[in-house]
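Progress report, Aim 2. The chain analyzed during this reporting quarter is listed below.
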Amino acid sequence: MNQKTKRARIESIDLGTPVQERTEKKEFKIEAPEEAVVSYFNESGEFDWDAFEATCPKRTRKPNPHIKTKNGDKVYSRESYAQELYDAYEGNESIFSIMPTAPVGEIVDGKIYAISGEWITVDAKFRELVYIKTSKEPQSIVDACTPGAEVSVLILPNETSKSGGILGSISGGMKQRTFKELVKGIETEDTAWVGTVSHMIENGGYIINVKGIECFMPGSLAGINKLHDFSSIIGTEIYVVPVSHSTERGTIVVSHRKYLQAMIPTEIENLKENIDNKITGKVTGSAKYGVFCEFNNCLTGMIHNNDLDDETSAKHKSREIKPGDVIEFWVKDIVSNSKITLSQRAENINNPWKDIEKRFKVPCDVNAVVKTKKEYGLFISIEEGLVGLLHVSEFPDGVIDSFNPGDNITVQVNRIEKESQKIYLKLTS
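Predicted structure tokens for the chain:
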């Protein structure tokens, strides 16, 4: 370049690692052919350092022979203070400690500074920008990147780059952060993750892809009940909960079953609100006394032989009914979250909570039977399927000891909560 030509930028000291970041962008007057200048300015009229450096690779620059260096360092700057700056850096690195160095192997947070065809640059508040090679990232990540967006970046060893500099990986940062969060979730057990069932493995189980992390899910943890078709969930998205981690192998075990178990209380409440609706489910197995069915994603109930319709009863007797068969039924009774009785015969359905407010006008006295005796009170059956608690505080001292299961007792129905299926009782005087 002609000595009269004003330099396009102030060169920086290269200590084996080119300085990539320009903290202050200025517009310089460049005395060069017009066609060579235009490509270095963006639409806003600012000088594009990325475009300029793309045409000035390191191998075409010559070190300043007048700068005395150590350890094979090379200084490319021709500025008058280049020697002083190098000496200051070599003798007292603390003057640069305001901007931390990049921790190789760690995940850092930053904002996307610029995007070019080959590189995504991220400002992570280091001395230099972090460079992410677009060809090394999934296209979905590249497409989602926009200037100013916050990202997590895994810092890579600069030895992986022939030209030096800080290299990073957005996909690597996402994977490592996800891995750490999954491991942490094993202790808390309060987070479910969406994963894709990638494929089955030979010895039983599945590989679940959770944000790029391949986790293992044993076949026994794939559902509330044993799956009738193990390949039916391949390619689907399911919620999983991390349950264990092998430090030696770096394997995370996840469970879809644990997620479904957590959903049972909510589904039970929804079932109570729609107790009269006919339900479609699938057979999970059968026994001499009835058929077991799975429904509403996570609930399981049993249809007794006496409650099977004629068609299903015939199949059951001839052992033709198989796991996976679609079947329809009604809910007969919700004994607990883990015990639900079903029926295919509408005439056998007896929902004691239906029209309960018409049968019991609160407050009212009823003749009832002691069902269970506990330290905190008696569970009283006021009707088949309707049980309420008579708290120990209702009894004078020592009186509760005289009652046993099966004894008759007169109680007052003081309050009925149909939605939560709770009955509040008082001891009559």
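The CA atoms of residues 274 and 331 lie 10 Å apart. The mean pLDDT is 80. These observations will guide the mutagenesis work planned for the next reporting period.
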